[in-house]
Amino acid sequence: MLMGYSFSDLGSILVMQGFAGLIMFSVYLLMALGLAIIFGQMGVINMAHGEFMILGAYMTYECSRLFSAYMPGLFSLYFFVAIIVSFIVPGLLGMALEWSLIRFLYKRPLDTLLATWGISLMLQQAYRSIFGAREVGVNLPEWMMGSAHLSDSIEIPINGIIVMGMTLVITAGVYLLLFRSGWGKQVRAVMQNRAMAGAVGINTERVDRMTFGLGCGIAGVAGAAFTMIGSTSPTAGQLYIVDTFLVVAFGGAQSLTGTIASAFSISQTRSILEFFLSGSMAQVIVLLSVVIILMLRPQGLFVLKVRR
To answer: At what angle do helices 238-251 and 279-296 cross, to 10 degrees?
Structure first.
């Protein structure tokens, strides 16, 4: 016996909370991937990143509603369409934001922080006006409902498995795009030495715009995943933005491996602690642990070595 639980019960609890942590890890990772791409590439602190996630969530909600009303026979397939829409719409909005505002604020991190914070407030109000202030939830198709029974005491929700599978595919796609494609080479060249990249003919402005749009689009996909584990409201993105910045800072802003490792360790720790303690205490313990580690290693878990 330990803490009033038998060892069998503790094993089941750890498995269930570990899986819940993996679902949280999926949302954290998708959010942090987009933020790390933007911050690592352009040094822009995007305080509106959570609102791009919520835009993706609202796009998923609208797809669910439209398919249910006008194409009920295809409702079981709507989520695949929603993922595409949730990437395209926030991505296009992000590119428009970069063209109209962010490009004038490069190398001014405080200004970009304040500007994107103002954009986040504007987007929250726009969501209230368009979608309403109340929380909304999507209707899932039949095949995404239910649980997989691993044992008499362990059940794994099917939608959680889908979220993790989607996260795995997107993470692999980001890796291939950044490290195995010509455009990825341009992104890394601009990140390491913008002046030299421009001197050899790389259109750095176009790379910046596409990169910002990619980061916002991935955040939108995180919003699509978020709809399967929580309800959507205009301010829901603010609940995740602090944790996302924490994941990026802890893992190393320019490291894909660091982002994955950071998201996994933080989500698993929080999930397990929340079962035995309150959610606020779990958050405090995780935050203090990350702060202490960053004091010892301020560059994060992983860091890219680049020429200065």
So the answer is: 30
Contact 193, 202 (CB under 8 A): no
How much is the CA Rg of the chain, to the nearest whole Å? 20
Question: If you write DSSP's letter for every residue of 159-170 in order, what string do you get?
Answer: HHHHHHHHHHHH
pLDDT in single tens digits along all 308 residues of the chain = 445 556 566 666 666 667 777 778 888 888 888 888 888 777 788 889 999 999 999 999 999 999 999 998 899 899 999 999 999 999 999 999 999 999 888 878 788 889 999 999 999 999 999 999 889 988 888 888 877 776 666 677 788 888 888 888 998 998 899 888 988 889 888 877 888 888 888 998 899 999 999 999 999 999 998 888 778 999 988 878 888 888 887 877 667 788 888 888 888 888 778 777 776 787 788 888 887 877 877 777 666 554 44
Which among 214, 166, 227 has a CA at the least distance from the CA of 38?
A: 214
Domains and CATH numbers, the chain: 7-133+146-296 (1.10.3470)
Q: Are 26 and 18 in contact (CB under 8 A)?
A: no
Nearest-CA neighbor of 221 among 71, 76, 79? 79
Phi/psi for 51 (5° steps) reads -70, -30
What's the predicted TM-score (pTM) here? 0.86
Alpha-carbon torsion, ordered 72, 73, 76, 81, to 10 deg: -80
Three-point CA angle 263, 94, 301, nearest 5°: 25
| Cα–Cα distance, 57 to 100 (Å, whole number) | 24
Question: Contacts by 9-16 with C-beta closer than 8 Å and gap 24+?
Answer: 9/153, 12/151, 12/153, 12/154, 13/275, 14/272, 15/150, 15/154, 16/154, 16/155
- The dihedrals phi and psi of 83, each to the nearest 5 degrees, come to -60, -45
